[in-house]
Design goal:
The chain is of the alpha/beta class. It has one domain: 3-Layer(aba) Sandwich (Rossmann fold). Helices cover 29% and strands 23% of the residues. The protein has eight helices and ten strands. A ten-stranded mixed β-sheet has the order 1-3-2-4-5-10-9-8-6-7, sandwiched between helices. The radius of gyration is 18 Å and the shape is globular. Keywords: Acyltransferase, Amino-acid biosynthesis, Cytoplasm, Methionine biosynthesis, Transferase. Pathway: Amino-acid biosynthesis; L-methionine biosynthesis via de novo pathway; O-acetyl-L-homoserine from L-homoserine: step 1/1.
Amino acid sequence: MPLSIPQNNSLCDILTSEGISLIDKSSFSKNIKSLKVLILNLMPAKLETEIQLLRVLGFSNNYIEVTFLTTKTYTSKNTSKEYLDMFYKTFDEIKDEPFDGMIITGAPVEHLDFEDIIYWDELKDIMDYSSKNIKSTFHICWGAQAGLYHHYGIKKYNLHKKIFGVFSHKSNNPYSKLLNGFDDEFFAPHSRYSYMKKNDFEGLDDLEILSESDEAGIYIVKSKNFKNIFVTGHSEYDSYTLYNEYKRDINKNIDTQIPKNYFLNDNPNNKPIVKWRGHSNLLFYNWIKILTSL
């Protein structure tokens, strides 16, 4: 179904070339209810993340109106101020508007304590806003860790070696609406230097660990009534996102390993093998379907 997004020509050209329908907000029929989704994009490569998320949202059967949100207390070093001013809003501009769903992306700040992050206080205000005004918030990677820490006090723990690659996962509750249609085994990319301990979830009856991996650990967590969803991986990633991260680290002389289970025969000279796209689309499709029922 069509998406309504800020009129960014570069973004629109890429999405329409992939067959994703875009529509102007004014063209929404009064007889058709659209879902309003707010995306807090904390990733450095804004356009890349926009494309990834809009691609999976466009897989749904609903009309979706998307608003992009950026932080006011921190200005991106990788995206121009002109771009942000043109296509993004700040929290002060939207805090009185109603939204159905929200996505909080990851951010390359996991080596820092949450309280040491420049925009942490602003992010707390946004997450408090989501608790009162958003039907369901979908947290991704570091965003999931930040949300679990803020809402439930669950800590993240640093790793010496990055969880990096495409890993097998299992479903702890195959009857959950969020995992509807999932296979017994499915795959998802991960790229992080931190993790959460399963023991820290004990006694928190509001949370359910829906999916985990023997290698990558906890993957999908939800709160009761799907108010908050936490996904520690990057199911939205493109075919070459892990490859680009791998090459970036090599070029910076960072000691990094080859992303596991990603290249054919784990050889970086070979083409990446995509085996997560179907379940990525299904995960966001199920979330949007849940939004319509809340």
